[in-house]
Amino acid sequence: MGKKRLYVDFHVLQTVPPSCVNRDDTGSPKTAIYGGTTRARVSSQAWKHAMREMFREEFAELYSEEESTLKIPLTGKRTKKVPQLLEQEIQAMAPDKDAKSLAKKVLKYLDFSIEKSRTEENRDELKALVLFSYDQIKKMAELAIEECKDKDIYRKELKAKPSLDMALFGRMVAAEPSLNYDAAAQVAHSISTHKVQNEYDYFTAVDDCASENKAGAGHLDTVEYNSSTLYRYATINVLELASYIGVEETPIAVRVFAEAFVRSMPTGKQNTFANRTLPDAVYVTIRKDQPVNLCGAFEQAVLPGVEGGHVLPSKERLVTYAKEIYEAYTGKPVQSFVVGTGMEQLADKMPLQQLLDTLERYIADDLSGNGVE
After folding, report:
1. pTM of the model
2. What CA–CA distance (Å, rounded) separates 87 from 362?
3. In terms of domains, do 61 and 135 share one?
4. Residue pLDDT, tens place only, 326-355
């Protein structure tokens, strides 16, 4: 009997107007060569950061001290300032203890390298960013107050009780690989379905207090931008996620991920371009074989349709390619859902909230009978 698998794949087509959503080191919109042509690109890191911010801002009510749907926090803190966080927690629990000294001992037991902060005088910080959940920080503080000296106990507790973003996106601790979490979700770099060419906006600003006889602008500059119809893809290994956070929590966690992936938007230059859009179409599949990224649909750059625009021909290309892949390799997914028009050949369309309800219910029903502990 083969190993049980359960994946949820998300395929999104989304048009973004003139914008600079994600910049490279020169300030230009990120691009990639795909199929021999230049495409607009938004990095997976940028979109995952936007998703984490949405977890924090819009789903906070799911996890609260008073009444919660989720038993785990949605987000942790990725920071070098772990010594300060530990000090604060120890001080709150045991005001009579030397919090700074105890915090240093915890980090020594964990073999984390410490250096002086370059921005804050006389403050210690880690040499590298590390992601911690609040529950993990709290447990470290408790062990420090109890004067625990067993390194294995510290490591065990630092591996327990991850935040949702840690379970989904992973954690790498170079100093101690045993503390790593493999990501249960993967997010691809978004690319445009068509060829793009970056453009430049030349702009000026007027000095409101300039004398009447002084002509010209007080400031001038340029900003680079492009516009595109993006193909976005992500996948969740549901059983791996369940092994991290438990079967009971996983269905709502998948729902939170789904909504955040569909509705979030990186914030680069948003005040300049007001580029916040929602997808043109969303295609979600449940698979029990393997994840399938359908970016091959756009290896040959999409050309504008008869009436102009890239959205309609991109939808048609995605539908055709998906059907070809299913026929040649994988067969149809176990379940499929579509939001938006133009892809009804792949699944019945429904509003986003209905898709989220249906997805959460399916995951709950499947996990309840698959033996995952």
Report:
1. 0.91
2. 44
3. no
4. 999 989 999 999 999 999 999 999 999 999
